[in-house]
User: What shape does this take?
Amino acid sequence: MNRVNIGLASALVLLCATSVVWLTGPIAAQDNLATPHRATTSEVELGRLLFWDPLLSGDRDVACATCHHPDFAYGDGRDLSLGAGAVGLGPARVDVSDGRIPTVKRNSPTILNTAFNGSSDRRRRRGGDGTAATLDPARAPMFWDSRVRSLETQALEPLKALEEMRGTAYAEADALDIVVTRLRDVPEYVTLFQDAFGTGTTIDAPRLGRAI
Assistant: This one.
């Protein structure tokens, strides 16, 4: 890749990263943190660490970045993704669970520009005066089938999914509580969450989703 292409690639990555920070919106109202905000430097750093940490998975063998890796345009380059119970990266990743944990039913979409999810709906929906409707980040559709809304809600779903990050270590209903407990047991994460969300902050699932 020549210097011009490298420069363009770097600019695109910076633009996407900046877009995510500036367009981060409220999380679901039931999380009691539904106030619009711009991610702080501390939140971004915390989210980066969580994104790469396999501690969030059932058997501590897969991270968010496993299936959304920068080497594969923040996807995994596979037709069907292999999450828990597998080793390797991208197309070279292989199942080591002897089929105990199935492949994910779809491949991993890139996470680039997910901050813009729902923007096409905004262009289609216009008010009576012809002005564009306001995009509500809490209603932005996520996943291939738009089954959940908001980036913060989406971030927690893979932690509960058998094929993605949970594996067979515990039941789906217990996944978030167990992951939160693990994080609370790491002094560094306790400090990082307080740096990001304020002194005295308790690590919980809503803040975990917001950070990621």
DSSP finds nine helices and four strands in the chain.
